[in-house]
Design a protein that fits this description.
The protein has 191 residues and is of the alpha+beta class. It has five helices and 13 strands. Strands 1-9-6-11-4-2-3 form a seven-stranded antiparallel sheet. The chain has a four-stranded antiparallel sheet with strand order 5-10-7-8, with no helix packed on it. The protein starts with 6 loop residues before the first strand and ends with a strand.
C-alpha cells in the first residue's frame, strides 16, 4: 500500500513463540512451496513457508487459502498478526497473505515495486525473526535495518530491495492486511 512514508515503525511485538516455531521448521518445509520463487523473479534467492495466500487469478474477489504452512505456524502466527492489527489498524479487515520468508546468506532481492493490484490495497507488515548487521533493506533509495522484536510496515509501492551479505540467513514473517473499508461483498473496492 502506498502509505505516507517509505517505512512505518510499528514498535515492539512479542514474537517469542512465532520465532521458536519458525526456527524449529525442518529444511523440507522451506522448500515445499516454490510459487513465490517461480512466479516472481526477484524472489529467486528466497525460500518461504506460506501460511495464507490470496488467489491472484480470482482477484478482485477475495479468496484466501490456507497453505502448507497453516498447520505448522497458524497457532503462533495468528496472535502476532491480531496483536499488530488491533494496535495499528481498523478491525474487521482480512489478512490476504502470510508467510515466513527466508533470504539466504549472500542473497539479493533486486529493486522492484510490488505490482499486482492486491499489493495496492493491503498493508505490508514485516516482523523480523532473524537478521544480521549485514542485511540492508532499501526503500526508495534509503537503507533500513530492521530489529528482531519490532514490527514494521513497508511502502511496497516504492522501489525496494534487500541484500544479505551476512553469513546467516535472514528470516522475516510477512503478512498483508486489507482494511474492511476496502472489501465489500467479498470483493475489493477500488478507491
Amino acid at each position: 500500500m502506498n502509505i505516507a512514508t517509505p517505512l512505518r515503525e510499528l514498535g515492539p511485538i512479542d514474537t517469542t513463540e512465532l520465532r521458536e516455531a519458525i526456527l524449529a521448521q525442518d529444511e523440507i518445509a522451506w522448500k515445499e512451496d516454490k510459487y513465490r520463487q517461480e512466479e516472481f523473479e526477484v524472489h529467486h534467492a528466497t525460500e518461504s513457508i506460506v501460511v495464507l495466500f490470496v488467489d491472484l487469478d480470482r482477484w478482485p474477489e477475495v479468496v484466501v487459502r490456507q497453505e502448507q504452512g497453516w498447520p505448522r505456524l497458524a497457532d503462533v502466527a495468528l496472535p502476532v498478526m491480531n496483536d499488530i492489527i488491533s494496535k495499528h489498524y481498523e478491525p474487521g479487515g482480512t489478512v490476504i497473505r502470510a508467510m515466513a520468508a527466508k533470504l539466504l546468506s549472500g542473497g539479493i532481492i533486486n529493486p522492484h515495486v510490488d505490482k499486482h493490484p492486491s499489493f495496492h490495497v493491503g498493508h505490508r507488515i514485516h516482523v523480523p525473526i532473524t537478521t544480521n548487521p549485514r542485511v540492508r533493506f532499501m526503500i526508495d533509495g534509503r537503507p533500513y535495518q530492521f530489529k528482531v522484536g519490532d514490527a514494521y510496515e513497508i511502502n511496497n509501492q516504492k522501489t525496494h530491495s534487500v541484500m544479505n551479505k551476512g553469513n546467516e540467513d535472514r528470516i522475516t514473517f510477512i503478512f498483508d492486511y486489507v482494511p474492511a473499508e476496502r472489501i465489500a461483498n467479498g470483493n475489493i473496492v477500488i478507491k
